[in-house]
């Protein structure tokens, strides 16, 4: 039985008691509106969150607004696409199967923990039981509260529809109600090289070489461009280094779509929602107004670009006071200044292209412009990063090909013409 149908069946049982209450906790009500309204009230329609321009309340619920005549169009919603094709692509797992695959969710199998719950490494066979077992990552919902359930449902429906080489692949899910309580799990492809965060900030891992950093951030940019400009516009809402996972070949894959929302449609310019996300990555206009656009997460991308260059976190309370906020610190060393190299990650040991680093810093500055409309699109960002990667890979004219630690490639990767942020 598909995930969506499962919730619809439950919704018919509880509709009489919950349909008139705002923010009702029944699991059934969430399924009616789909992932775009995963933080919406039970009276919100499937298109309300994608088209709302109203401010949300403190609970995170989006107040529905009427669709204007000017915004009418045929754009499909994630929930309708999921009903049409998404659930057929996902495997429905038994709880006992996943419990066995993870050694009963043993501590030795635990990969990490977040607001949603814990993630475990497991091994499963194909649905027909044939072939060798393959490694997977199993995310198990923390049973406290409804927010985790809403994020679980959003992930099922978004990743049941979206498909791109730079998005993590959702293999299936488990949804069981029993005497043990409500069990909600997600099963993903396994990412053996952990996250970009692990390699940038945790000294237990070897530092990422310069060229690999460029390849990783280019892949992340291509994933965001797909979300922003694909069949359905998706606003990711939680772009940060810990959500950029790395496969066996260090290909970047965006993960954690529990906070994702559908973008505005028609005449609407933004989506309104309660402010969520991670401190240090949220755009100032989103923090001030709760208005979401794709440009809000171009800002987040600019923050991560500086993390790639510096090897520093966007916010680090363990550093001296003047260096705790990354963007304030790097502002002292503009890309064209003589002291620009002061910001570069010392773990690179000087083995990077200074010209490419300057251009990437300029690109980061354009992503961090105060006026959101002046920031580049993610397609423009991909274009600039692609040129930077190409410039780094090309040997200097008349010189032998570079080794793994070659420096100073001479080709510039010009950024879009932008003014520096205030």
Automatic annotation (TrEMBL):
Record-listed ATP binding positions: 140
* Record-linked InterPro entries: Kinase-like_dom_sf, Plant_Ser_Thr_Prot_Kinase, Prot_kinase_dom, Protein_kinase_ATP_BS, Ser-Thr/Tyr_kinase_cat_dom, Ser/Thr_kinase_AS
Residue ranges with Low complexity bias: 16-53, 66-78
Which residue intervals define the domain Protein kinase in the entry?
Answer: 105-395
Note whether Translocase occurs among the keywords: no
* UniProt entry tagged with the keyword ATP-binding: yes
Listed CDD domains: STKc_IRAK
Name of the protein this chain belongs to: Serine/threonine-protein kinase NAK
């Amino acid at each position: 039985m598909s995930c969506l149908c499962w919730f619809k069946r439950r919704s018919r049982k509880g509709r009489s008691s919950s349909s008139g209450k705002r923010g009702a906790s029944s699991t059934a009500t969430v399924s009616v509106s789909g992932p775009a309204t995963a933080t919406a009230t039970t009276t919100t329609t499937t298109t309300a969150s994608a088209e709302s321009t109203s401010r949300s309340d403190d609970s995170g619920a989006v107040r529905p607004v009427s669709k204007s005549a000017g915004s009418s169009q045929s754009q499909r919603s994630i929930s309708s696409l999921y009903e049409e094709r998404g659930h057929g692509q996902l495997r429905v797992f038994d709880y006992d199967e996943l419990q066995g695959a993870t050694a009963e969710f043993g501590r030795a199998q635990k990969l990490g923990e977040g607001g949603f719950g814990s993630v475990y490494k497991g091994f499963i066979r194909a649905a027909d039981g044939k072939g060798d077992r393959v490694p997977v990552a199993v995310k198990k919902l923390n049973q406290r509260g409804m927010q985790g359930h809403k994020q679980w449902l959003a992930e099922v429906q978004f990743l049941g529809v979206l498909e791109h080489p730079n998005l993590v692949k959702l293999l299936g899910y488990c949804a069981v109600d029993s005497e043990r309580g409500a069990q909600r799990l997600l099963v993903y492809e396994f990412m053996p090289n952990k996250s970009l965060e692990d390699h940038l900030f945790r000294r237990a891992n070897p530092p990422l070489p310069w060229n690999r950093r460029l390849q990783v951030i280019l892949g992340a940019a291509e994933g965001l461009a797909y979300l922003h400009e694909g069949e359905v516009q998706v606003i990711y809402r939680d772009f940060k280094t810990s959500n950029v996972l790395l496969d066996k070949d260090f290909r970047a894959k965006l993960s954690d779509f529990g906070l994702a929302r559908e973008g505005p449609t028609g005449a609407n310019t933004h989506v309104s929602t309660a402010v969520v996300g991670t401190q240090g990555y949220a755009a100032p206009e989103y923090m001030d107004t709760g208005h979401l656009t794709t440009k809000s997460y171009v800002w987040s991308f600019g923050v991560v670009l500086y993390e790639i260059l510096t090897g520093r976190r966007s916010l680090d309370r363990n550093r001296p006071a003047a260096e705790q906020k990354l963007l304030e610190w790097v502002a002292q060393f503009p890309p064209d200044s003589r002291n620009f190299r002061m910001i570069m990650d010392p773990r690179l040991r000087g083995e990077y292209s200074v010209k490419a680093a300057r251009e990437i810093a300029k690109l980061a500055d354009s992503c961090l412009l105060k006026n959101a409309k002046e920031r580049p699109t993610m397609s423009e960002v991909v274009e600039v990063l692609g040129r930077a990667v190409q410039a780094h890979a090309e040997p200097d004219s008349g010189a032998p090909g570079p080794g793994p630690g070659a420096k100073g490639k001479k080709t510039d990767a010009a950024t879009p013409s932008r003014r520096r942020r205030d």
